[in-house]
Amino acid sequence: MALTSAMPVERRLLRRNITYSVAKTEETNILHELGYWPRQNAFFDHIHKHRSLLTEVVAHHLGIHANMCQVADMSDWLHGSYNLCVPISVKNSSRVLVRFPLPYRVGDSFRPGNSDEKVRCEAGTYAWLQQKCPDVTTPRLYGFALSTGKVFTSLDYLPFYARILQHFRRWFSSLLRLPIPSRFVPHKCDTIKNIGPYLLLDVDSYVNGLLSYHDDRLEHQPNAVNGPGDCASQMTALAFMRTIRPHFFNPSLNHGPFVFSLTDLHTSNIFVDKDWNIKCVVDLEWAASLPLEFMRTPYWLSAQAIDRIDSEAYNMLREEFMSIFENEEEKRPAIYGLRRTDVMRTGWELGTFWYTFALDSPTGLHSLFYKRLQPLYSKTDGDDVNVFTIILQYWIRQPSAFIRTKLNDREIYDEKLRNEFHEPP
User: Fold this and answer.
1) For residue 197, pLDDT beyond 50
2) What are the distances in angstroms from CA 393 to CA 241, 245, 253, 382, 419?
3) Model pTM score
4) Greatest pairwise CA separation for the chain in angstroms
5) N or C: which end of the chain has fewer CB within 10 A?
């Protein structure tokens, strides 16, 4: 009689099923991600049970009666990695979307307020673009609200007298050369001072802050290391990243300028017509005011992951992009006395391109450092165990104890992961 092996256990993630053989090789925390699917179902069910409130929300911001609004069936709801969009049909008008941050994806459970911060950043982006770049087509934002109860409605949809008052307020501020108030007006609450993206004081602070996040990942993610050698390699990379940082940034730009940047500007967020003219840009919630030297050509020009880019093939596409970008920039006056194309070209020549992408990638920093940055200084040190042994001591005191802790974390993680998939020890 032939024996057949049991089918491997599959568990559901948000976008795929996964088996233990795949899960154990993933760099991300699969134990954490296994909780996303049930949390998503619970959150969607919660919104569905309170769908009558959605019609009231839409009616409130549009200044109409709630019976003119109808919530779409759950099968027609839209969601991505961080947002749920519920379509609402409005009688005698087009449909609108009510958009919710997914609390289990933005870390609201362990850092309450993250969802509000995400909403504030996106609303601030809309307000800034409408005021500073009215020719940029974005989805129309009618209003937004925070978990604190603060509600903001677009000036165009306020009651008549309130709208007249706000227009007068904006005109009077302009007359006195004061900052013009946002078009999103708070009501039934105290006016908040800032609804825009967060701005750090200098480039050094921002870079050091990002490197601290990488330190925290290595220290706190239970499956951050695969073994003692991998742990030492990551510790060394992080120590070196701080050491070489001054080589990639111009000290004269340390205190600015900072430029408005769409950090999630990948292909699925850019809508074009049949002639490839850009018609609309969406998903603006991760926009931020970033150091000018963080401007760079999109890594997805070559349709490769950032740590797998063929640099020669990519450079051909980059040069074509830069040529077009330069032609467009010449049509506009230089801001701050600087040309963005000059800063971006210098960043490519110095390696700032790779350094900043390494900062932006929690799982890609290690690979980018050893593939793109370390060879700028030495062709051999990357394979020299003695270098790791020396340098890692400057990332943390008592490095041997840290490595033992991380290996123990990994052992506990692996055991829990096996249990989730009913795998034998």
Assistant:
1) no
2) 14, 19, 32, 16, 35
3) 0.82
4) 92
5) N
